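User: Here's a chain of 330 residues. Predict its fold as tokens.
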Amino acid sequence: MTAAFPALRMRRGRSAPWIRAMLAEHRLHPSDFILPLFICDGDGCEEPIAALPGVSRWTVDKIGARAKQAHEAGIPCVALFPNTPGPLRTVGAEEALNPDNLICRAVKAVKDACPEIGVLTDVALDPYTEHGHDGLIDERGCVLNDLTSAMLVQQALVQAEAGADIVAPSDMMDGRVGAIRTALEQAGKCDTAIMAYAAKYASAFYGPFRDAVGSGGRLKGDKRGYQMDPANAAEALREVALDIAEGADMVMVKPGMPYLDVLAAVRQRFEVPTFAYQVSGEYAMIEHAAAAGAGDRDALILETLLAFKRAGASGILTYHALDAARLIVG
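Assistant: Prediction complete.
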């Protein structure tokens, strides 16, 4: 005699690929991704980044081809990050305001090569300071919020004038989003969007990125005085609320995987376009795990990216964007 069993067997919905696909609650698509690209000085060069296996810095003359490759894969946007030459890094970060700096030349090169793709630029001073901090500092090494914000406004204007579609302040200074929004409107750049790094944590997962932009070995002290404490979640909601009120079109949670609870809470509370950054340390862990035979690389890539979508991400900045697009569409 067959033992009694509930009428609903959940496994029926998992019994074959077609029904799993039909019942899937979340899906990945290449349009979910933003591809970060690193820029270096020189001509005709690709510089592999040891701390980020499979990722390179590219000179301006080669960056357009990388953006075009992303566009052809269905990726809608690239994010550009410069490795500013050492002699141009100063206490006052003056190179950030140079309309012919690496990032501005790269924006123009991408737009010339592939006008259809979106370009996001990082608004922060750490690629330009000799001390590696995101802002201007006083004699004690403390980052000066208001003086930094004033400079970030000028940096955002320079990038918008170069052709950036989205400026993304990643510095975590108070009030900078509102100041940038006002300045963009006054300059006639009302179509330039702001993606605020609204909840950016003082994380241990940023090491490879700092190597990629050349700021890691320069950093004096740490960034805990202005980036968020990993212990705090409610504070992130306050930060996001402030940035939205100041005019942010989109917000970001960074890092990604260790902060899925924050990502989900932000999306549920505010219902605004919410992005996550799968940061360099997360990327490197997947690459090293796969290289060590601890997991299938393709499966690890897709599972982690799907976790961001499940948590509510509108999109994901990821160094795996091209690989993921290939895996999704074949």
